[in-house]
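Contributing new records

If you add data, match the layout below exactly. Sequence lines come first and carry their own label; structure lines follow with theirs. Keep one chain per record. Anything else will be rejected by the validation script.
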Amino acid sequence: MSQRDEREGRILYEGAKFDILLKTIEGRSGAKTEKPYIHHPGAVVLIPETSHGGLILIENRRFAVEETILEVPAGTLHWGEDPVEAAHRELEEETGWRASTLVPVMTYFSAPAFTNEVMHVFLAQDLQRGVLNLDDDEEIRVVEFSREQADSLLTDGKVKDGKTLLALALWKNLRED
């Protein structure tokens, strides 16, 4: 169950990972209208960098687009969960790797026109083998890319996922500093 108060809107749908609410807003003219939005606990996005300077990504089957797409590991926070704890959990669950070092990179809204989801991006370094622990509904294959291969992912058209494109650009920018 989500953590929210009544000012956030009337519940249309209450789910395990997000709720859909209807919120009354006042326009410039003073007229009131109702707008639906997704109330979300937030998510973590991980940029797992190998000791050789490459990246660990995942091929993830996404039912909404009916495709297996290349992504950085990521996951939804549990309501009230600390993003650092979620980052450690999601990295190991989806890739089978653990990070000794998590560096906060950026926090952003995923799609503020219809959700309040906040994405917390972390650079995951000093990786050690952990235990892959996929959810029952996940179809994931872990793929390691060299630095050169990972650099080409921004321009070769193989990545269609927005959070992954941003993560790759951030990773490249971090290395140029």
